[in-house]
Design a protein that fits this description.
The complex is a heterodimer of chains A (about 250) and B (about 400). Chain A is of the alpha/beta class. In chain A, about 40% of the residues lie in helices and about 25% in strands. In chain A, helix 3 runs parallel beside helix 5 and helix 8 crosses helix 9. In chain B, strand 1, helix 3 and strand 2 form a beta-alpha-beta unit. About 0% of the residues of chain B have low confidence. The chains are: A alpha/beta (about 250), B mainly alpha (about 400).
């Protein structure tokens, strides 16, 4: 369960002064659901998800994840979250297994549980072929699988994916989308950010459209279609962000 | 703080660090090989050069003296000189190393000498050119010896005892213990080396564990794990400290071995060899280490802080290069003659440690200074570590773009 309550993040920029990267964003993601955060580049998706993962601290507002407050209890929150983004790389000089082990230990798993969990994940993701290969020698697909294994090792109830398919080829991207669905089917709470409409249409149960740090529209795909009298998500998106987007550019 | 987590981070960083070939070079190979190559190379080269220069019979040109056959004859009889005929371009020939020196015998030298008149013999040589200096020394020695025999015979002919011109002898005698003698020569170097290498050994891992992590995109990965930033920075800090101490220990070991080998090899003449013999015991080395430990902590923390600020490897390197000078300057200052410990200097980091190491190696333990310096450098170390921890909690630094 994720509950964002008035999440806000302001940065100081030397040239442009204060920037509201995220402005008073509130939403709820429920277990067994995929929440899709849809927005253009620079809309505030990454900052929002980083605050949920407690990598950044909110300037105002907060979020409650599995009953823990991201401001007051960041370490507890992180223990309940699996975070995956294009920026979460692997340690090049560790092997695939060592990488997953490291994160298992950091999550407080004892060695027996860790071994059991790793065997299970490596079998499930078909990773045994490159268990002992160094991460810098892995193909993109193998790296993605290792990253997935890393986010799963402590079996977190909440998954946060920040544009996980960005820059991946179709086959690797499909592994990620399949994995996202699997997380939902196992009853996890999933939040997923992207700027690719088709991904959202295929995957997400609830969609939030974010622009200039503000959450402008929220609902199931059917509800968004109803409200905006459009079938195509891209058209809905343009309708929602359009006027504000052009005014902020001017 | 969670010791288990600090240990997990440390172990992982150690694994990665040991798998990096650059580490092997900067932490192990450089300190191990630098000294033997540098010292054995330098010392054997200089001693070979000096030996060669000493063995060489210098060519010396005699200018004038046609009217003084007596002195010319005596000069020719000297084994260690080869006399070449006079020519006007003697200065040029000295610079071009065709001859080593030239000696100008004044007109009517023999007859003026017998009349007891004052006169000057000039020796031309090329200063800074060792073989030329040796040649000039030989010539000068010959003339001084000749002058002494003239004085002695004059005194004898007048029935005056020789003691009239040398009423008493003056002699210097050393009271310092042997380790103090070698300590003065080596003490400065030992402390200096420990300090310098504990710094250079920390540079590479400090960059790799901070800016390197940003550059490779693993910073966000590790920050998403439940470990606290304090535990994370401490794990990294202990690795950098280990690297720093490893480099320093290897360097000391290598330096000691090189000195020992060179001292034993007979490559250097006995007088120099004596000062090169390491009379440094294990307890001295340990004391030096103890003194340098807070400094190593300080370096590890400061280097981590600075390189964490950088976005990339390259940027970090450009910040840390000037740091080397900041460390070298006080360390070198401590080697200067006459720079001694004072209560004020004891508060200056690096300089104070280097100075006290010099004293310790020389066999002197000023306990009040030792305690003062340990305290002051520990305060700096704690401040550095505090800064590193604070830096790791700043988003603007971790996500600087």
């Amino acid at each position: 369960m994720i509950e964002a309550r008035g999440l806000s993040k302001r940065f100081q920029d030397k040239k442009r002064g204060e920037i509201k990267a995220v402005d008073n964003v509130s939403f709820t993601c429920k277990p067994g659901q995929i929440y899709g955060l849809l927005g253009a580049n620079g809309a505030g998706k990454t900052t929002t998800l980083r605050m949920l993962a407690t990598i950044l601290e909110p300037t105002d507002g907060t979020a409650i994840i599995c009953g823990y407050d991201v401001v007051d209890d960041p370490e507890k929150v992180r223990a309940h979250v699996g975070f995956l983004s294009t920026a979460t790389a692997l340690y090049p000089r560790l092997t695939s297994q060592e990488m997953v082990e490291y994160f298992g230990r950091l999550n407080g798993l004892d060695e027996a549980t860790l071994k059991k969990r790793i065997d299970e994940i490596f079998n499930r993701l078909d990773m045994n072929g490159f268990r002992d290969r160094r991460c810098d020698k892995l193909s993109t697909g193998m790296k993605q699988k290792t990253s997935i294994a890393r986010t799963l090792v402590h079996d977190p109830p909440v998954m946060i994916f920040d544009e996980p398919t960005l820059g991946l080829d179709i086959m690797t991207a499909r592994t990620i989308t399949a994995f996202t669905r699997e997380c939902r089917d196992r009853g996890k709470t999933v939040i997923f950010s992207t700027h690719i409409m088709s991904e959202v249409e295929k995957l997400c149960d609830v969609i939030g459209i974010i622009q200039s740090g503000k959450l402008l529209a929220e609902g199931t795909l059917a509800r968004l279609r109803d409200e905006h009298h459009e079938q195509d998500l891209e058209e809905i998106f343009v309708k929602v962000v359009g006027p504000l987007h052009s005014s902020s550019e001017a | 703080m969670n010791f288990r987590n600090v240990g997990i981070v440390y172990r992982k960083e150690l694994t990665e660090w040991l798998r990096d070939r650059r580490t092997l070079i900067s932490t192990v190979l450089v300190p191990l090989l630098a000294f033997p190559i540098l010292m054995v190379g330098m010392i054997s080269l200089t001693s070979v050069m000096i030996g060669k220069a000493e063995k060489e019979i210098p060519k010396v040109m005699v200018l004038g003296g046609e009217d003084s056959p007596q002195i010319l004859q005596k000069l020719r009889e000297v084994d260690k000189l080869e006399i070449v005929p006079a020519s006007d371009d003697y200065k040029k020939r000295i610079s071009e190393k065709e001859i080593r020196a030239a000696v100008d015998i004044p007109k009517g030298f023999d007859s003026a000498l017998s009349r007891g008149e004052e006169q000057t013999v000039k020796i031309y040589f090329y200063e800074g050119e060792i073989k030329s200096s040796f040649g000039a020394d030989h010539v000068e020695k010959f003339f001084k010896d000749y002058r002494d025999t003239v004085v002695a015979s004059r005194l004898a002919s007048r029935n005056v005892p020789a003691s009239i011109i040398k009423p008493f002898e003056v002699k210097q005698e050393n009271v310092a213990p042997p380790e103090k003698v070698s300590g003065a020569a080596l003490g400065g170097i030992l402390g200096y080396m420990v300090i310098l290498l504990s710094m250079t050994g920390a540079i590479y891992p400090a960059i790799d564990l901070t800016a390197g992590e940003k550059e490779r995109g693993t910073m966000e990965t590790i920050l998403s794990s439940p470990i606290s930033r304090l535990d994370l920075v401490l794990g990294k800090f202990f690795l950098v400290l280990s690297a720093s101490l490893t480099t320093a220990i290897l360097a000391i070991f290598s330096m000691g071995t090189s000195f020992y080998v060179v001292g034993r090899s007979g490559l250097v003449s006995s007088k120099e060899g004596a000062s090169l013999q390491l009379h440094i015991g294990l307890s001295t080395v340990l004391s030096v280490f103890l003194m340098a430990l807070p400094l190593a902590v300080f370096f590890a923390a400061v280097l981590l802080t600075i390189s964490l600020f950088a976005k990339s490897y390259k940027e970090a390197q450009s910040y840390l290069t000037p740091m080397t000078f900041v460390v070298v300057i006080p360390a070198v200052a401590s080697l200067l003659p006459g720079v001694e410990l004072t209560p004020k200097l004891a508060l200056i980091p690096i300089l104070s440690t280097s100075l006290v190491c010099k004293e310790i190696v020389a066999g002197t333990f000023h306990w009040n200074y030792i305690i003062l310096i340990l305290l002051s450098s520990s305060v700096y170390a704690a401040a550095g570590l505090f800064l590193a921890v604070k830096m790791f909690q700043r988003e603007s630094v971790l996500f600087r773009s």
